[in-house]
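Re: that chain you flagged

S.,

Sorry for the slow reply, it's been a week of failed gels. I finally had a moment to sit down with the sequence you sent. For the record, here it is as I used it:
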Amino acid sequence: MTHPHTLVDETPISPLRQRAIEIEVAEAFRFVITERLGQSVAAELFQEAVDRLADSAARGLRDRYPNPKLAELWEVWSHLGGEGRLDLTLDELTDERLRFHVDHCAYADMYRSRGQAEAGVAFSCRRDAPFAKALVPGVTVEQSRTILEGNHYCEFTYTLEDR
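Prediction finished late last night. Pasting the structure tokens below so you have them in one place:
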């Protein structure tokens, strides 16, 4: 089986390209499920699938981060934002709290350009919390605003009580 961020020939692809591929498949399934089972069931199943993708991605990082802390979560965010994908500003990083905001998001640009802003919120923005919780057990997540929901920036706060 190939790594989730490689093509069949093992050529690495960017996280942005990976999301573009994933959303095409996910939206096709969501459309069919909505037609057959209704909006409510489709939304529930879609969120469950997104949660599973987040969990799988976090588990894939366990070798690199066997006992992850908020600093490692920031490192992951920095990687996702690399190559101009996200303009991140770190507001606070302690053992107990990670706060940052995103002033520009190429993921949001990509979803909007495809007419998939609403799907992008469900598929990407709503993936952040389950991913963080799977990577850093015990973390609480507050995502008070996102660019894809029409805000000028995304705002994240991760809090970790003493383990």
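What I noticed first: The chain has a mean pLDDT of 90.

Talk soon,
D.
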